[in-house]
Amino acid sequence: MDPEAFLDVANQVVKLKMFPYFDIAHCVLCALHVREDLGAGAQQFSRKHPMACWLSYMLVVFAGGMVANGLLAEPILAPLKNTPQLIVATLVWYVIFYTPLDIGYKIGKFLPVKVVCSAMKEIYRCKKVYDGVTHAAKLYPNAYLIMIIIGTLKGNGAGFTRLIERLIRGVWTPTAMEFMQPSFYTKSCLVASIIFILDKKTELISAPHALVYFGIVIFFVYFKLSSILLGIHDPFVPFENLLCALFFGGIWDSMAKIFGRGQIKEGESKDAKKTN
Amino acid sequence: MDPEAFLDVANQVVKLKMFPYFDIAHCVLCALHVREDLGAGAQQFSRKHPMACWLSYMLVVFAGGMVANGLLAEPILAPLKNTPQLIVATLVWYVIFYTPLDIGYKIGKFLPVKVVCSAMKEIYRCKKVYDGVTHAAKLYPNAYLIMIIIGTLKGNGAGFTRLIERLIRGVWTPTAMEFMQPSFYTKSCLVASIIFILDKKTELISAPHALVYFGIVIFFVYFKLSSILLGIHDPFVPFENLLCALFFGGIWDSMAKIFGRGQIKEGESKDAKKTN
Amino acid sequence: MDPEAFLDVANQVVKLKMFPYFDIAHCVLCALHVREDLGAGAQQFSRKHPMACWLSYMLVVFAGGMVANGLLAEPILAPLKNTPQLIVATLVWYVIFYTPLDIGYKIGKFLPVKVVCSAMKEIYRCKKVYDGVTHAAKLYPNAYLIMIIIGTLKGNGAGFTRLIERLIRGVWTPTAMEFMQPSFYTKSCLVASIIFILDKKTELISAPHALVYFGIVIFFVYFKLSSILLGIHDPFVPFENLLCALFFGGIWDSMAKIFGRGQIKEGESKDAKKTN
What we know:
Oligomer: homotrimer
């Protein structure tokens, strides 16, 4: 592929307008997520408690913005001020939950539709991460941790509001914390945030911004599709294991085990040398 | 009744000063609510944990303002800045919980006292809903959903903070979400918010503002009193059932049932026609 | 001791720079707290879930600032904007959790180290309470309750975020509310806040500000050390019992008991007289 044409495509991806098509794709996947989270009783629940169903769905749709706003002292409800977006979201919810004979749901679950929606959602996610990092960088130009947190939350807000989302539906699952077993989305948003910060704040990445952005979009879409189509779920696992082995106790713990209790003195003197 | 005199009364109701009498009525009912929520062990609890008791009571009293502020990025503690109001609230709490031989509680529960307090609280509630809608409309002139949410929360904040209120007292009841089974107050505040928005933003309601306001006050007081005196609890139920039957699956589900599995093809083609 | 020299010392304590030594002491104790809260499985947990471990530790370290900011509509994440402080906190966490053969943890738990850290943390705590009261007083010059709340939260934030801290680690203990059984820290921060307010807003305390501040520091350090070394846990208990007996039902309840059901009429008339 011609590098210039490639850069052109990248520039166009950066400037993509999100409303309404990408919003619809995002909403479809959110509605499917809520419906699957409800399990077998989803249809009954949606008939009995339409308000709780709609509210928890809205929380999922606008999770990233709401949580990020809450943490940055901006109005939590602000993402709801865009009335056309609200109407689109509500229509999608209605179609997925209430169409006769569940046609809406069946279409949404139809593999090609799901694949297209997922790809679009990943493009949207990348934009959200980038917006989050940029916004945080404007507020706190030197607070890298805040940029990472906001970028990650904007990208995968729904993961972090899952507890509240379920609580709205009267279900409480305290062990389902995202922090305990971060999903692939959380990890990839975290990595994307770090890359955006490196691109913005340092000279380490010499590629033009559009290319960096496009690269992350491709990464997001590629792994999403391979997750749906091939069942590969988390390419970060080997890196994590390596990191844990190197820094979070793995090596030291094994060494302590090898030397055992009998040779504890030797082990201690060795370790003491290393900590100096 | 003379229409002009009626309008005069309405105008006076709009301008009613709330502090201190309406505040006292509100506080009395909040204290009774906390005490009843504590059940049989209320007195013992208030002796052992006065601080938790007082804090959860304060949360109930100022719930609407606090939650609305939290969602609009205004200081959650701001409702506590009015020291005279705080002192009145604390005194009411003391009288209901700690007077000798429980005289305060018995007076508060005495039917005529309760009726008067309830009527006053409903007038107060109407003012809060109106203030909430107005405030949200100032911040987001086109965000109707935000106005409705803030109006409803200001009107029936205590319903939405119940989980936190109980948590302060060390009790966790995740299934008691207001969204799952919205109380009559939530529904009526929602309807009142919508009417206020129609009055403010559209030309649909031609009556003068004072009359609209007064009408809602009468509606609130009337249903509150009929709930206390006659045991009518929720005049919205028939409308809800109708709504559910029309829009949230009722009809389609019944049709799908009637046509059954045997004639599923016919049903599908029929539905397909209707969705066009 | 020479009074002037004493005032000199007091003035120096007021102006003490907190970063980095006091921060380190604070972080060490926070890390020990998280580790002890994890119980026997602490080491395993820190190996399996380093992110949840780190996040819940960070919440403990910055609890006071975050909660106070959340309640005053300031950015909850703002305490994380200070990157050097973050790095120090992360290093301390790493040393306590991951050093080979647990040397970091063992050093942290070594009594003399713990005593020094505790004393430093109490000096830090006093500064935080004072800063909290001052900050709230700037925002709401007449809202004494808000000043007390913010002062107490800044001083003992970790007590109030315990539920969230545990939730991040996937554990939910709704009965562990600080309000139900306030710890000594909460009570002493509350008292310190009230003294600071009296010093700032009234003429009741004629001593110079530095002396008042120093007095509170001494009080904090003294009781912390006596708690570690002598096992005295809560010098407020007798005062609380007195308060409860006087104001929160103690006397009235006993009297009602003494007069009993048989003489209830007499009791009632007596009480009625007293309430006049």
